[in-house]
Amino acid sequence: MKKPIRPTVYLRLLAGAVLPAFREAVALRNRAMERPRPGLRALLLPAARDLASDAAARAHTGLGFGTALRGAVILGTHDPASRTVLAHTPDGLARFQIPEIGFDRWLRLQAGMLRGGRGTPPGVAEVTICFPHFRTALAALRNELDELAALGAGELVITGSLPLADHLNVVLQRMADYFPPRR
Fold it and tell me: What are phi and psi of 142, to 5 degrees?
């Protein structure tokens, strides 16, 4: 007759520590799966009602502009139309600021290649694009801003190389081809 196998003290301790953690992880995963996930498009292009609170609007403004600037770097590498625009753009450093939410990012174009970063740029910016108020930046993100009127009213401040700003804007506008506005 075979002797029954008895768990050792080690196995008992392991089961006592691991099984509850495993059960908790499974329960968290199951709860997470029950929640509907909005998808990337809904996160990047929320409905106006979802931006009613200042906290949500501030968060979306930072997320949206950060995503757009990082997207410009990716488009500059992979999108033929963006590569063509950047090939005919003067080299330089562009700084993007939204002081109300502490947003400070930069893009550097050098020899047709676009790089980006956050915080203080690695040199003197040839152009600075500043939205003094985050709601104006949010309107620009949502394609609801008359840029010329905003420039005249001081709601959008561009100092430095306008050709660099204009060409980078063309690349940023290409994001709409990949994330079309809501209808």
Answer: -85, 5
Alpha-carbon separation of residue 57 from 14, 61, 135 (angstroms): 47, 6, 8
Phi, psi dihedrals of residue 23, rounded to the nearest 5° = -60, -40
* Token pair of 101 as six digits: 């939410």
Kindly state the average pLDDT of the residues 61-83.
91
Higher-confidence residue of 58 and 35: namely 58
Instruction: Reply yes or no on whether the pLDDT at 105 is more than 90.
Output: yes
Residue 38's φ and ψ, nearest 5 degrees, are -75, -20
C-alpha dihedral sign at 128, 124, 86, 177? negative
Residue type at position 54 = D
Specify the pTM.
0.73
One-letter amino acid for residue 46 of the chain: P
CA nearest 161: which of 115, 109, 114, 116? Answer: 109
- For residue 67, with 0-12 CB atoms within 10 Å meaning exposed, 13-18 middle and 19 or more buried, which class applies? middle
Average pLDDT over residues 22-43: 56
Q: Tell me, what's the pLDDT at 99?
A: 96
CA distance 96 to 109: 14
